[in-house]
Amino acid sequence: MKLVQNMVNYKMNMITADELLKYAKQFNVALKQEDAEKIAAHIRGKNINIFDHQERAALIKDVAKIAGPHIAKEINRIIVQFST
């Protein structure tokens, strides 16, 4: 299980705006290109562990500041699906 978590965290920490938009579309999240670029830039290289509740909560707060609370809630919903 640890290997899968490492792979998911690695992918999350290296995500591009285009990948984020692709996932948003796949999960019906209305994410704008500009917001995707800001979110991806914020996440990239920070080694965030999305399986850690506190780190994920901090990330979601940052996403809410960038793209708004509705988008942050939807992104959290998606992340929780991947992390359980």
What are the key terms here?
84 residues; mainly alpha; 5 helices; globular; DUF2624; Thiamine pyrophosphate-dependent acetolactate synthase large subunit-like protein
Structure explained in plain terms:
There is one protein chain. With 84 residues, the protein is mostly helical. It has one domain. It contains 5 helices and no strands. The radius of gyration is 12 Å and the shape is globular.
Write the layout of secondary structure elements.
Layout: H1 2-13, H2 17-26, H3 33-43, H4 53-67, H5 69-83
Helix pairs in contact: 2-3, 3-4, 4-5
Quaternary form: single chain
Question: What is the terminal separation in angstroms?
Answer: 11 Å
Overall structural domain count: 1
User: Stretches where pLDDT falls below 50 for ≥5 residues?
Assistant: none
Order of helices and strands: HHHHH
Strand content: under 5%
Mean pLDDT: 90
**Roughly what percent helix?**
over 70%
Q: Helical segment tally?
A: 5
**What's the total number of strands?**
0
Radius of gyration: 12 Å
The largest sheet is: none
Bulk shape: globular
Q: From the helix content, strand content and strand pairing, which structural class follows?
A: mainly alpha
